[in-house]
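Pipeline run #58 for the internal structure catalog. This entry was flagged by the ingest filter as a single-chain record with no existing model, so it goes straight to prediction. Upstream metadata was stripped on purpose; only the residue string is passed forward. Reviewer on rotation: M.T. Logging verbosity set to normal.
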Amino acid sequence: MIKIEKLSDFQEMEHLLMENEQRIHIIEEKLTPLGMTIKEWSKNNELDHRIVNDLIMGALRGTHGVSLNARKKMEDFFGLIFE
């Protein structure tokens, strides 16, 4: 028997996956015409590509320090991809 609590967890994970896919799609739309990868874009903006990837995948929230700086630069270029 599935508990409601577990179903809610599953729905939350499904929602996060959808957000990640949408975020990736927006980023690809911006970078493809420029012929750039996210790693190249990160380097050009003096950001660690691993932090940028973690932000894209939702592993980091970007609320302070280095990840906040990366998030701000990403939102300046890609738009509000984290809302």
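catalog note: The mean pLDDT is 86.
catalog note: The chain is about 70% helix and 0% strand.
status: ready for reviewer M.T.
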